[in-house]
Write a structure and sequence with these properties.
Strand content: 25-35%
Helix content: 40-55%
Radius of gyration: 31 Å
Oligomer: single chain
Number of domains: 2
Number of strands: 20
Order of helices and strands: EHEEEEEEEEEHEHHEEEEEEEEEHHHHH
Distance between the termini: 77 Å
Structural class: alpha+beta
Shape: flat
Length: 438
């Protein structure tokens, strides 16, 4: 059942808070201006860097044979990334010949979600109703329930154990006749599930420890019946477990081993608060393509005056495909940050009017009308201001593009501020009348 909390903010308090909002509006506009400037310059910088690397890049047709002609060159090469190292998870005694060994830990916990709705009251007061709901979910770290709003859920969370996540990578990964650097190794993503075979004595020891914790918290003995099975929670971890054989299945009272998963709890099919799920994956040898600078028998980032660059992609790719993908990614992130900056400017301008809007809260209808008008004005002014900031950044970086954006911004100002829309309509009408006169 949802838990609701109602709070009332007085008119005087709201007026005082609105003054803080005005100050925050200035801060948002300044911050957004800096973000927009930085974003445009960063786009040009990244674009120039990619062009510089692409111009210097040469194909290495056979990485299986080391050649002195490629020393110091930026190369694009494809080969199998392999290793002979055996990686070990000391805590669980798991060993695998792999490029990486990854331990992921999840906890079944109540998570608090909230949704607030505010309503203006006659006289300037504001009534806010916040609805809190609670749902058990698998999360990456334990959730402190002591501060939950609903007393019925306070201090309900606990964990049967706390286990650290872990990532271990091989130090020597071959790439044909070369070896990969640490940063390139960590970029390999060819993951597979590890079929567990944990020592039975270790499983029994964990089972005893988990059972004691369960009894201490729940007051339920180890012999108590497990809850009725419920639908399993569908996720990528479960899918990974299905990809390996399950002839390693072990079911103790409070510890269950199956596939690549260790489960702490009474039943893996009916999770309870406090249960812990640990999954293991390995990074296996795979064909990869790199672009990096040859440095002896390994590779390093290539330094340009615009910044350093190296990359690793899964599978076989050409340098043209990689650079095209990077250019598209650079453009996408630029647009995302550009939109964020524009929205911040608009929100900042709206905040500048928050004091007047709050004063009108005495009559909610008037306040709503004022807010609607401010919203329209803030959007137009914010958009024009943002275009001018972006244009100035481009004038400094790439003048022709910047001038074009300034022309667009000037047109918007003319249309919205100087009756440009009316003048355009008059010109259109004259254009229609001219042929008729002939």
């Amino acid at each position: 059942m949802a838990y609701q909390e109602k709070t009332t903010t007085g008119y005087g308090t709201r007026v005082g808070n609105s003054l803080k909002s005005v100050l925050m509006g200035f801060v948002m506009i300044i911050g957004a201006t800096i973000l927009l400037f930085w974003n445009e310059f960063n786009y040009v910088k990244q674009d120039n860097k990619l062009d510089a690397v692409q111009e210097a890049c040469v194909d290495m047709p056979n990485p299986e044979k080391k050649s002195a002609e490629f020393e110091g060159e930026v190369v694009c090469a494809t080969a199998m990334a392999t290793t002979e190292e055996v990686l070990t998870d000391q805590e669980f005694g798991i060993s695998e010949n792999a490029i990486g060994l990854i331990r992921k830990v999840e906890y079944y916990q109540y998570v608090e979600h909230s949704e607030s709705k505010s309503e203006d009251k006659l006289g300037g007061k504001e009534e806010t109703t916040t609805t809190y709901t609670y749902k058990p979910e698998w999360v990456s770290s334990p959730v402190n329930s002591a501060d939950f709003k609903d007393p019925a859920y306070q201090n309900k969370n606990f964990t049967l154990a706390q286990v650290e996540e872990q990532k271990v990578y091989a130090k020597n990964v071959s790439f044909g006749a070369y070896v990969l650097s640490e940063s390139l190794i960590s970029s390999i993503s060819s993951k597979e599930a590890v079929e567990l075979n944990v020592n039975p004595q270790l499983l029994q020891s964990i089972n005893t420890s988990v059972a004691n914790t369960f009894f201490a918290v729940r007051g339920v003995s180890a012999g108590a019946a497990a809850p009725a099975p419920q639908p399993a929670v569908a996720d990528s971890t479960a899918a990974a477990a299905d990809s390996v054989a399950t002839n390693n299945k072990v079911d103790l009272e409070y510890v269950h081993q199956a596939g690549n998963t260790l489960y702490y709890g009474r039943s893996a099919n009916a999770p309870e608060i406090g249960d812990v799920r640990i999954t293991f994956e390995k990074v296996v040898p795979a064909k990869v393509t790199i672009i990096a600078q040859v440095d002896g028998n390994t590779f390093k980032s290539y330094k340009t005056k615009y910044g350093s660059y190296q990359t690793l992609r899964m599978g076989k790719m050409t340098s043209e495909e990689i650079f095209q993908d990077d250019h598209e990614s650079n453009s996408m992130w630029t647009w995302i940050l550009r939109i964020v900056g524009i929205l911040l400017v608009i929100s900042g301008i709206k905040s500048l009017f928050s004091f007047v809007e709050t004063l009108l809260k005495v009559v909610p209808f008037l306040s709503s009308l004022f807010a609607f008008g401010v919203g329209i004005i803030s959007t137009i002014v914010g958009l024009v201001y943002s275009l001018i900031v972006i244009a100035i950044a481009w004038v400094l970086a790439r003048p022709l593009v910047g001038i074009l954006i300034l022309v667009v911004a000037g047109l918007l100002i003319w249309v919205f501020a100087f009756n440009g829309k009316k003048k355009l309509a008059e010109l259109a009408n004259k254009g229609k009348a001219a042929p008729a006169a002939e």
